[in-house]
Amino acid sequence: MLERSEALRGTGIENVGPVLRAVSGEQFYNTSRLDLPRLLDDPANIADNLVGYIHGFSAEGARDVLERFDFPEQVRRLDRSRLLYPVVARFCEIDLHPQKVSNLEMGYLYEELVRRFSELSNETAGEHFTPREVIRLMVNLLFIEDDETLARPGVVRTLYDPACGTGGMLTVAEDHLRELNPGARLEVFGQELNAETYAVCRSDMMLKGQDASHIHYGNSFTGDGTRGQRFDYMLANPPFGVEWKKVKDEITAEHETAGFEGRFGAGLPRINDGSLLFLQHMLSKMKPGRDGGSRLAIVFNGSPLFTGAAGSGESEIRRWIIENDWLEAVVALPDQLFYNTGISTYFWVLTNRKRSERQGRVQLLDARESWAKMRKSLGDKRKQISPGQIDEITRLYGAFEENERSKIFPNEAFGFMRITVERPLRLRHQVTDDTLIALEADKKIAALEPDARDQILDTVRGWGSTTLHSDGGALRKQVSASLKALGVHKKPLENALMDALAVRDPDADPATDKNGNPQPDPDLRDHENVPLPAPANRYDHDPADRLSSPDHRTAIEDYIQAEVAPYVPDAWVDHSKTRIGYEIPLTRHFYRYMPPRPLEEIDAEIKQLETEIQQLLNQVTE
């Protein structure tokens, strides 16, 4: 390497990188004559020599990695603290050659350091690290439909991770494909926001012979490094519950201007959780079905399953996915699997090339009890999924059969129509102590001059305590005439008097508007979820087109007649407020009723505890 580098000097060749990379046999090289042991020979100049050694690396890849760690500045800081020489000396004692320490082991070392320092600084270690057994299970489910295809000689596939961290998912996927077919090639792509984590991932790709230029630095939402590209497979473990306020303007602009031509046409989730933005970003990179389609798997917490009412951004995103028949399965995982959180997590598996028996259906798989206790916990991670359990979950997924751990539903089972049920406003108008207090406390009345206010109150008291009018229209005429006589007639005052004197009376006639239609009572308003009629494998940008169909109207009317009319026959549905919603209530479908223990057993346990407590108290007093 050094001889070749020297020979190229003075030849006039400006781009010597390709030649030196060919000599090194790697995607990077170093033209410095120094190495770590030689640095120790000159303690006084160790900082300058180490910085010079770093600058000897090729600028095309390795230099970018080192600069992301701000290596020269770290070297100067250690030197000022007189720690640089001892640190270099310790590294010289350790053999970290790739033949001794694998890339996987180096990834574990780095991510364990990330986890420890993140805990000390209260940062989110989960943004960096996904447990390897979790990734193996994800990769199994991602490739499960394609084992035969991937076993063909010379097959080439692409895989993308928009939040790749140190590249764990990319590494495990590549290893898995190599096990299926040593002759297959998986080209991996990724993007990472954290500079140091990006550097680890990129260096790992260089050492493995992958094209390190496929790993991009920056925010996947605002600086998409793979814009316009499509991939065969995608994996991601985006940060849980992280807000996207910093990139709100760019994302909102893309949503409003590009619509479905962009990445976020279906909707925007609430600002404090951008998980579903990652999913939309990945779906935008699916290959069309005519080109073979794509499969993707993503890790979520429970929020994307059900957060958001009908018509909200989250619900609209779920509707878009399910009605396009992209959601293949949701897998519920054990809690305490991740290093920074003990919450329950879920895999979503999506594809635009479902096999025929899965089309129009979604599989829910309960793997919450598939775990083994770790001998020693790591942060919040106290459980792991054993290889045998990974195989069992994969088998259940692939079998696509109904049992107590696997449920299969048609797409429309997750949809519903959120209807608004109104009941008529029934009022009587009466002068009572309570209505007079309400009238006097009204802001519009209180804002009047004292004389005008007193005149209005005296006029109302003079009407007596009997019911004034069952017909609100007649009372309004009386109120209007009285205010005009007092010289203070204004529509807001008229409304204030009407509202203050109104008393709800279930036996009164329904109040009507000027067209004779019953007025709804806001206090009696209710909302009901009506199951969505089949089929649901159709996505309309405007759900109003769906709601106006006879099938949907009939479903609503049938529901009202069966569930509402027998109890409140005067109720009606305000169809203008009906919304289509989608949620995935996974835990409800796997709920198992556990009967309470017999009272005798509980009573005996309490008495036993009382006896033990009394014995302890006796020991204290002796």
What does this 3D model show about the protein?
The termini are far apart. The strands form 4 sheets. A 9-stranded mixed beta sheet has the order 3-2-1-4-5-7-6-8-11, with helices on both faces. It has 26 helices and 17 strands. β9 and β10 form a beta hairpin. About 1% of the residues have low confidence. It has 622 residues and is α/β, with parallel strands linked by helices. α5 packs antiparallel against α12, α9 packs across α11 and α21 crosses α22.
Radius of gyration: 34 Å
Could you tell me how far the N terminus lies from the C terminus, measured between alpha carbons in angstroms?
A: 84 Å
The level of helicity is 40-55%
Mean pLDDT: 88
Write out the strand line-up for the largest beta sheet, numbering strands in chain order: 3-2-1-4-5-7-6-8-11
Class from helix and strand fractions: alpha/beta
Low-confidence stretches: 120-126
Number of strands: 17
Largest sheet: 9 strands, mixed
Content of β-strand: 5-15%
Number of helices: 26
| Net shape | elongated
